[in-house]
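Inputs:
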Amino acid sequence: MTPVISIVADEEEAGSVIARRIADDIEADPQCAIGVATGSSPLPIYRYLAVLVDRGLSIGGVDWFALDEYLGLADGHPESYRSILLRDLARPLSIAPAKLHLPDPFTDDPDAAAGDYEHEVSDARVRAQIVGIGRNGHLGFNEPGTPLDSPTHRARLTESTRAANARFFDSIDDVPQWCITQGLGTIMRAARIELIATGEVKADAVARALYGPVSPDCPASVLQTHPQVYVTLDAGAASALPQQKIAAS
Ligand code: GLP
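Outputs:
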């Protein structure tokens, strides 16, 4: 089905639009599972969810599932995705740490940890999965070339993703080489997918994801085959979309 595309004024409006839909999910099913992402794009969603919680939205029964986690960082490293989600999501929203789920990066057998997480996410039946998009079209850490039906797996980051994420570390050498990520097949099992992208730097990836060929060359293109995808963009991220498609959406 064609994704529902909204072009909004700025990232704060993008965040509030998506947060309101997530709040509706939670009100409809207070025990639901919500998939969350790291990166800077989803932060406005978490900020607006915090506003809704302040206004009385009750989220104590919700389980929150991360897309991915780095391998090789020390426990408690400030740039591990667990630390980031504790800082940007769990603490501001008073989410109990036990309700935040990520792949376990501290095991001797990351492939087994990936398999365990695949089961955990599948069993949870994610109601809405928030995703950002990498500049090369990656989702989670599913880099170009990843099979479109992949399960949760150990993956190697591309150099371009390490370079993009180097801004969070002292140097690119400190960016991990490996991670565990939900696969594209895992992400696709969420009942609804909420893609948020802001800034012109994402324009090309967004256009390829929505209107390019469905191909592992652009992992996010798999979203074209999902029955319920909402895409929320600012003008910069929408700037490479074909004009007639924007008018029609
Ligand atoms: C990382 C994450 C992705 C995220 C991407 C883009 O690679 N694993 O889930 O979509 O960064 O991040 P940002 O939103 O900061 O551009």
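Remarks. The chain has eight helices and ten strands. The radius of gyration is 17 Å.
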